[in-house]
Amino acid sequence: MLVGRAQTGDAVRWVCAHEDGMRPIEDPFAAFAEGREPVIIDERVEGRLLAPCEPVVLVGIAQNGPAHPSPVQAWLKSPRTVVASGETVSLRSDAGAVVAEGEIAVVIGRPTEGLTAANAHEYVLGVTAVNDLSSPERVVMDPRNFESKSGAGYTPLGPWIDTEAGLDSIPLVVAVDAETVATTDARELPVSIRDCLAYVAGWTPLDAGDVVMTGAPHSQAPVVPGRTASVAVGRVVLTTPFI
């Protein structure tokens, strides 16, 4: 199931993608806690898709690129940088070049106490697409990634959470202005998604709605104002125009 959040009139509702449009559903995290898919509760609705969740903790995975000499590590990014698919992002002009980093984002479904690499799928609601926008020139003076990744809107996320996607093999495609610049897969990550989740959960508690961005395996592209980037993670396609 593809689940997300939509602004419908004055209300924000959980919805799923249906053949006739968006259908309201019950809280998918409550359903996940009971070990089942959320139930469709109403007929088709009109609305604007929002970011598919509101993470309290937003984790990035570092050193998960090809042949990186350091072991996998994690860092924190402000959840206030999260924006919806289709929302225009203003690129900072004071931080050097900007790079779109297409990544597979994992949405946690329940508290992660007891999570291991072997059982990680039991704690995951689903996966979505994320564009971990970065200003890499700032890393020279800011190795902790605070300046390079903290711009307003620098974490486009969504628009859907795919609750049926696995963790071991997920296609990832990045395009700029409809021209494909990267095609890869979760299998190309030197450290698997399962191992990344186990590493993060081993050091800090995560809970329903938190997000782990799993790294950019050959999936980066420079962007400038006037361009539009897209990140496709399986069935989920995220688009972000830049000014």
Give a verbal description of the structure.
- There is one protein chain.
- With 243 residues, the chain is mainly beta.
- It has 2 domains: 1-50, SH3 type barrels; 51-241, Fumarylacetoacetase-like, C-terminal domain (Fumarylacetoacetate hydrolase, domain 2, Alpha-Beta Complex), CATH 3.90.850.
- Helix content is 8%, strand content 37%.
- The chain is built from 3 helices and 17 strands.
- The chain has helices spanning 28-33, 146-149, 193-201, and strands at 2-8, 11-18, 21-24, 48-49, 58-62, 73-76, 82-84, 98-108, 124-131, 155-157, 161-162, 171-176, 179-185, 211-213, 220-223, 228-233, 236-241.
- Strands 5, 6, 8, 9, 14 and 15 form a 6-stranded mixed beta sheet that branches.
- It is globular and about 50 Å long.
- The model has no long low-confidence stretch (mean pLDDT 94).
- Pfam families: FAA_hydrolase (PF01557).
- GO terms for molecular function: acetylpyruvate hydrolase activity; metal ion binding.
- This is Fumarylacetoacetate hydrolase family protein.
- Keywords: Hydrolase, Metal-binding.
Query: What is the radius of gyration?
Result: 17 Å
What is the H/E string?
A: EEEHEEEEEEHEEEEHEEEE
CATH superfamily of the largest domain: Fumarylacetoacetase-like, C-terminal domain
What is the 3D shape? globular
CATH class call of the largest domain: Alpha Beta
Topology summary:
Blueprint: E1 2-8, E2 11-18, E3 21-24, H1 28-33, E4 48-49, E5 58-62, E6 73-76, E7 82-84, E8 98-108, E9 124-131, H2 146-149, E10 155-157, E11 161-162, E12 171-176, E13 179-185, H3 193-201, E14 211-213, E15 220-223, E16 228-233, E17 236-241
Parallel strand pairs: 5-14, 7-10
Antiparallel strand pairs: 1-2, 1-4, 1-11, 2-3, 5-6, 8-9, 8-14, 8-15, 12-13, 12-16, 16-17
